[in-house]
Design a protein that fits this description.
Radius of gyration: 13 Å
Structural class: mainly beta
Strand content: over 45%
Mean pLDDT: 92
Distance between the termini: 28 Å
Shape: globular
Number of strands: 8
Oligomer: single chain
Length: 110
């Protein structure tokens, strides 16, 4: 659900969730902000029409690229340009992050 003109309590949104969840929070012009709770690796993919930016809130997020793995801790941000193959995964049982991307973003599974 998109929450325009509403205060969003992120801690309340993530409280007690122990399974994968991807929640659209807000639209900003033609982009969407999602809250992602990861409990397992996401499949390898790319986005042909959008960059994707991750901002970690809780736990650690690994972003596997074809040539390296980027490790993100809470408060760290990383952007992936369109057409770059990648996969995200939590370290441990759970991670929580925001993603910022084009609202009409396409995902191509590899």
């Amino acid at each position: 659900m998109i929450h325009a003109l509403t205060v969003i309590d992120v801690q309340q949104e993530i409280q007690g969730i122990r399974s994968y969840k991807n929640v659209p929070l807000s639209l900003v012009n033609d982009h969407i902000i999602r809250l992602s709770i990861m409990t397992e690796p996401f499949y390898w993919h790319y986005h042909p029409n959008s960059d994707e930016t991750f901002l970690v809130i809780e736990g650690m997020v690994y972003i596997d690229l074809e040539d390296r793995t980027v490790e993100l801790a809470p408060g760290q941000l990383f952007s992936i340009p369109a057409n770059v193959r990648h996969r995200t995964r939590p370290q441990g049982d759970r991670s929580v992050n925001f993603t910022f991307e084009l609202a009409t973003m396409e995902t191509i599974k590899l």
